[in-house]
Amino acid sequence: MLDVFAGSGALGLESLSRGAAHVTFVEKDRRAAAAIEEVAREWQETNARVICESAIAWLAAPVSEPPFDIVFLDPPYDSDLLAAAAAALVGRIAPDARIYLERRAREPLPELPASWKELRAGKAGEVGYHLFSV
Fold first, then answer.
1. Mean pLDDT, all residues of the chain
2. 17-73 residue pLDDT tens
3. How far out from the chain centre does Cα 66 lie?
4. H-helix or E-strand containing 95?
5. How does DSSP classify residue 104?
6. pLDDT score, position 27
7. Distance (Å, rounded) from C-alpha 15 to C-alpha 28?
8. Which of 6, 21, 125, 128 has its CA 20 to 30 A from that of 108?
9. What's the CA gap between 66 and 61, in Å, rounded?
10. Dihedrals phi, psi of 59, to nearest 5 degrees
11. 53 Cβ partners below 8 Å, 6+ apart?
12. DSSP 3-state of 113
């Protein structure tokens, strides 16, 4: 599983607590990345990998791990990074992957890869959420 723009790591950490085999967290803020690492240590979780780097830069780098089957994609609002991150994911996701993304509800979705098929969408307050299959 991949948690891009991990922030607090809540989505990935919840996945680990529910039995995810592995979670890679990508978060450029050093304090946030350190906090995720600290929680993983406290939980004695060996299936967490925290990468402190720009998500776009990391996604653009050569692929060295197997493709991800689940991706959480939640870039900072007003960052305009959603389309770039989605495009960069194409070489990093499995053919049957699921992508969960969040964005500001009042803003339209940017252009996403043509292979992504929306399974579900909804709104909770200011958050628009979407589930896609590949």
1. 94
2. 999 999 999 999 999 999 999 999 999 999 999 999 999 999 999 878 889 999 999
3. 16
4. strand 93-104
5. E
6. 97
7. 20
8. 6
9. 14
10. -65, -30
11. 26, 28
12. coil
Residue type at position 106: R
Write out the DSSP string of 26-79: E---HHHHHHHHHHHHHTT-SSEEEE-S-HHHHHHSPP-SPPEEEEEE-PPTTS
C-alpha gyration radius of the chain: 14
Closest residue by Cα to residue 15 from 38, 30, 36: 36
Pull the structure tokens for residue 3.
């948690």
Model confidence, pTM: 0.92
As given in the structure block, the two tokens for residue 112 are 């996403």
Q: In what order do the strands lie in the sheet with 117-124?
A: 48-51, 23-26, 2-4, 68-73, 93-104, 127-133, 117-124
